[in-house]
Prior knowledge:
heterodimer, A: mainly alpha, two-stranded antiparallel sheet, two-stranded antiparallel ribbon, 6 strands, B: mainly alpha, Cytochrome Bc1 Complex, Chain D, domain 2, elongated
Amino acid sequence: MGGQTRKKLMAIMALSAMIGLLMFPILVSIPALAAGGGAPAAGGPPPDVLAEQEGDAVEEGQKVEMGRDVYYKTEGIVSGLPAPKTEDDLRSYPRYNFESRVLLWFANQQHLYYGSFVLAVPIFCMIIEFVGIMSKDKAMSKKYDQLAYDFIKISITAYSITAILGGILIFTFLTLYPAFFGYLSSIFRPVMHIYALLFVAESGTIYIYYYGWDKMKEGLLKWIHLSMSVVLNVIGTTLMMLANSWIGFMMSPAGVDEQGRYLGNIWHVLHTALWNPLNVHRLLGNMAFGGGVVAAYAAYRFLSAKNDEERAHYDWMGYVAMAIGVMFLIPLPFAGYWLMREVYAYRQQMGITLMGGLLAWLFIIQATMIGILFLSSNYYLWQALGRMRGAEKYQRYIKYLVFILVVGFLVFITPHTIVMTPTELKAMGGQQHPVLGAYGVMSAKNGGINVIITTTVLSFIWYMRGNKVPIVPWAKFGDIFMGCFFGLAYLNIIWLAIYGYYIPANVRVGLSVPQVVTTLSCLFFMTALNLTMLKGAKMSGPIEWGKISVRSQYALIMLATAFTWMMGLMGYIRSSVRLFWHVNEIMRDNSPWAYTHTTGFAANMISFNVLFFWFTILFVFWLGTLGVKKVPVEAPAPVPGRVPQPAVGH
Amino acid sequence: MKSLILWAGGIIGGIFLAVIFLMSSGLVSPQMIQLVPGYMPMQVLIELTACVGVFALLSYLLAQNGLAIPKFWQGTLFWVFLLLYLKFRIYPPIPYSVRALYLAVSAVAVFMWVSSNEEDWKQFKQPILNVLDAMTPFHKALRTFYLIAIPALLWGFSYQSFLPSLEEPIELRTVHPAPPATTKVHGRTFVLQTAQNPYRVDLEGKYDQGFTDDLIVEQGMGRLMKPDANPWDPDAKGYLKHVREGGEVFFQNCHFCHGDNLNGRGLHAFAFNPIPANFTDSGTIAQLQETFLFWRVSKGGIGLPRESFPWASTMPRWEEHLTTDEIWKVILFEYWHTGFYPRTWD
């Protein structure tokens, strides 16, 4: 057995021991869960005790009350009290002299922003640390390692703020919505305890991971250190999934009967109709958001840099963060599409309220924000071509990419419900416009977003080729093949978008699959082909890190702001689609604020949340700069042929 | 040879562009090159793509001959072209809110194009910097002009916006409000998520969406009936017979407003504002479940939910005039005639 293999084995064993220790409290609690969760509502006995009582009751000739699961339609023993019927009084809704909901909205949103950030950054660290370990170039390896360390350092302060905001959120719930929170915690009691235990495990791991960085920087210990980031992310993702189960339950309750009485199966309560799509969507969203925030941090440092060395370092950092963010941004619309599809399948009226009715205009704003994200990413990549000698050959064609992107974008943001004056309505000859009406529905929008994403992939491929000339013998054939592949991909996407108008809706929904496959084929196959073609390619010049336009850095800041704003918006939409329900169709919201805010008010509130987050995160960034060596870790002047390579490894 | 082809392309493209421009500026009829109903969405995109191609070609040819148009004017003129195109070329006119959205995005696109590399960006900025620096008498005069014109223009806009307007205010109307989970018609409760049209059946009388979908009218120009699928054939059975019965109900009750081609332009249509729904548009019944239609037809405008403000629908509560069966049949007819398929969730 080689030394390297032995080291890896040791690392795996040490890691397993650590996982075992961290998971111990949770494993201990599992038997209780297996017995039915031990989570009766409002203080009743747990199901195992209940089962005994049931036996006694049967003996005494009493009837055990059974309930029918509102979602799974299975029978279960009623193990809890019904959802409380609230009144508009101080008992159900204690309040200050303003809208309690706004306070809760603020606390929730801030907690979510920080929570997303601290869940995303360790995933980044894991990827970057791994790339650093695998890098054969010592200087690059060190550079990646330092970058991962910089990331986690920012995350540590943010972690404390997340915990503080979590506390504020719970107090806000307890003091302003006691009846609702009491009900929710009675259903989720075991889940909430596991959540708390996982939080302890997460804290322990993150502190060892951070403070042990220098001690564990060589050989076997480095692998253990990297493995800890895997554990950290497993715990973090599980935490997120548990928190998602609460909102999943509020939107699409399961595991309870029509009165909201718990039926003893905690898995049903967790595994609601929307839980999995929410998990996937949030995980990807967090990653993209984290990438955006770190990229904005790098842009801020770039813009305030005092010398070329700093500029080069933060230019590179911004690029790496943006690349990771965009990597997760690309599948995000597909995850969102899946979530919406499940929403429609769960409740038609919920889907229509979201996308065709009351909240439709918010969705148009959301589409605009998605478009801005992609436009900013593309713009950044085009600007980045400017720091490569030899990239001029691509720059002259950018105008065509702009056109394709913007046409896709315009179709994507065309509203279905148009704002117009009665005069315009008359001039249009009815509510439906023969052009806008077609762009305003899903078939066209699917085409639009896929065109946007495919173009982003193309921009990225151009960027990868910027300063390289392929010298493989089949280079010309490869170029033609790639050109044809992209051309056919565009044709296929557009054709399917048109074809969608001529087929039944259920088939049309399915058409999104070939469209997505087309887009992802461009991403995976063309990137792979490009990388193969660029093996040993002739360099037409180095990447001159730091020599990028300032406009590119503003694009990064724009990207991050758009992410933040969009998260706020989508959170609001997801929450307000329940309309006047705390728990959809189970527990009614009888507070005086059980109405949907106007679009203007919601936009202002979201903007306030975004501003607050950015002010506080700037504070976190500033804390991160305290006690740091002024000059970043060696960023050697670029030498042709040995240029610092971004994380994507081209 | 290459140059000849390019010039020929440039001349043809130039003529095309001139025609589009004349139509866009209202100098000749916007219908000179017809936008064909049903194909308009793609026609507009193709036309715009062709225009961009011609612009690029002409710009290239002019640059080759030492007559390059400065970047600033390229960007500005292209945006103005889009403004005119959206305002005048597309008919019926696009409402201002959407045009503003499109033009704002177009302005961003122009910015992205002209600033995509340093050289272009420098070129684009130069005329602006020239005016600001005012190093020549011409630029000085221009700067003075802007100094007066811009505030005057802003004053004009402000003045206009303060003037009392007689126009009706905008009503944000929810065209398709979310339906309730259930609806009660003639004493029977229907669950909208799961209920099915009882007349969407095959020849054996079993519910069969695929069978009925195959018999609908073909979409496109002319809307042709499928061979051997004529509901007015006296021997028509099952689904087709129900379509005919639905059609009879439609022409006795609905076509006065919704029109004999189901496009919302019936005899009385223009007495209402907004005019009745156009079922041939892909944004109406094609997006909805049959049960949604059942609920809307049964309950009419008066039964619209709260979110459907300002409840701008004068449709009667048809449950008071038609039987449940007649409502289902008329829905069947509407889908048959338009060639659309009702939304399903399998």
